[in-house]
Design goal:
With about 375 residues, this protein is α+β, with helices and mostly antiparallel strands. The chain has two domains: about 190 residues, Fructose-1,6-Bisphosphatase, subunit A, domain 1 (Fructose-1,6-Bisphosphatase, Chain A, domain 1, 2-Layer Sandwich), CATH 3.30.540.10; about 140 residues, D-Maltodextrin-Binding Protein, domain 2, CATH 3.40.190.80. The protein is about 25% helix and about 25% strand. It has eight helices and 17 strands. The strands form four sheets. It has an eight-stranded mixed β-sheet, with helices on both faces. A five-stranded mixed β-sheet has the order 14-13-15-17-16, sandwiched between helices. Strand 5 and strand 6 form a beta hairpin. Helix 2 runs antiparallel to helix 3. The longest helix has 20 residues. Bound molecules: 1,6-di-O-phosphono-beta-D-fructofuranose. The site of 1,6-di-O-phosphono-beta-D-fructofuranose has 12 residues, from strand 7. InterPro entries: FBPase_C_dom, FBPase_class-1, FBPase_N, FBPtase, Fructose_bisphosphatase_AS.
């Protein structure tokens, strides 16, 4: 790609992609830099911080440290087969799952970088039995799933990292403890996930909408690519592991039959809305991050309900369901356990599981109507 030096106001010269310059050279003084270099994740978070009264910069620094850990993990995910990071460590984690080398590596990177940040009073990870006290008087709690979609690691299918950040109430007065983490999701101050897919996309919310950033591998920087994501009110795809059908409750089986168009009941999700058109298409990757990302962008519904084998579903409340629910709600979507709002659930354990249903408002409302019996057929 050729570059040229061009004026960009204030008399400074700046390198620009030549083909862009040619198009507008007739009005060099009016070239707007924004066209050339997107907003970086760092700048976006800084803008958010400036909007927050009494901000000290610690929050921004914490998010920048998380972004650093993500870029390190990304570099190894993209070359896992060459870096000897495929396969298992031989250990079993607190979930009873065999730990994969990439799980362990990603966990170590996040623990190391968060420790170095100095901003974490407490850290909780899917790969750690207990929450870790880090810096006694630090403000924040970070809870994460270092590598989500483990069953897809060795087959090069989309995997991800998920995290949530909470602010401790009295960091200067109290020692960090588990109670700092066992708080409802509505108290989250930031949540995000990263999808290591065809490109690396970081979806983040600090409570001012949900935004997506794409990593430019040539520069090693995340740039704003999906500003202010809005989940469509309804979609045309459903995402669930139908292999569990026989274990679902009759209500959820009814919902599945309906959404596949096996029964022709016409459903109008809310007063005055258009009827929902079935059958929906089926999409299921088996990585929460990949299935949730598609649902966030295109709409529709993702569900990992409870079943006769896993009474509370499979996914973990604190570092899978809560961060996803925060991001979806900030994008105008919905997240429920089938009855209650995920972000209202009061946690009792670090690794507790919860049924998770998230997606478009119309689609999730109908799921809830089937589960609550408001709608049988
Ligand atoms: O294979 P199943 O039972 O459909 O479960 C898939 C679900 O389990 C998970 O892999 C659990 O997450 P981890 O890989 O982090 O343990 C989710 O990403 C995914 O949605």
């Amino acid at each position: 790609m050729s570059v040229a030096l061009a004026a960009c106001g204030e008399g400074r010269l700046r390198r620009q992609p030549a083909d862009f310059i040619m198009a507008e050279s007739s009005s060099i003084p009016s070239i707007r830099p924004a066209h050339v270099v997107g907003t970086t994740l760092r700048e976006h978070v800084l803008q958010d911080m400036h909007a927050a009264p009494g901000a000290t910069g610690e929050f921004t620094s914490l998010l920048n440290h998380i972004s650093l850990a993500i870029r390190i993990i990304n570099s190894r995910v993209r070359a896992a087969g060459l870096a000897g990071l495929l396969g298992y460590t031989g250990e079993t984690n607190v979930q009873g799952e065999a730990v994969q080398k990439l799980d362990a590596f990603s966990n170590e990177v996040l623990l190391n970088v968060l420790d170095r940040s100095g901003h974490c009073g407490l850290i909780g990870s899917e790969e750690l039995d207990d929450a870790q006290i880090n810096n006694n008087h630090a403000k924040y709690v970070v809870l994460f799933d270092p590598l989500d979609g483990s069953s897809n690691i060795d087959t090069n299918v989309g995997i991800g990292t998920i995290f949530a950040v909470l602010r401790r109430s009295e960091p200067k007065l109290t020692r960090p403890n588990l109670a700092d983490a066992l708080r409802p999701g509505r108290e989250i101050v930031a949540a995000g996930y990263v999808l290591y897919g065809p490109s690396t996309v970081f979806v983040l919310s600090t409570g001012q909408g949900t935004h997506g950033f794409t990593l430019d591998p040539a520069i090693g920087e995340f740039f704003l690519s999906h500003p202010d994501i809005r989940v469509p009110a309804r979609g045309s795809c459903f995402s669930v592991n139908e292999g569990n059908f026989s274990r679902w409750s009759p209500e959820i089986q009814n919902w599945a039959r309906w959404i596949k168009g096996e029964d022709s009941t016409v459903i109008v999700p809310s007063e005055g809305a258009e009827p929902l058109k079935t059958p929906y298409g089926a999409r299921y990757v088996g990585s929460l991050v990949a299935d949730a990302h598609r649902t966030l962008i295109k709409g529709g519904i993702f569900a990992y309900p409870a079943d006769s084998k896993s009474k509370n579903g499979k996914l973990r409340l604190l570092y899978e369901a809560n961060p996803m629910a925060f991001l979806f709600e900030q994008a105008g979507g919905m997240a429920t356990n089938g009855k209650d709002r995920i972000l209202e659930i009061m946690p009792t354990e670090l690794h507790q599981r919860v049924p998770l249903v998230l997606g478009s408002r119309d689609d999730v409302s109908v799921f809830r109507q089937f589960v609550t019996g408001e709608r049988v057929k």
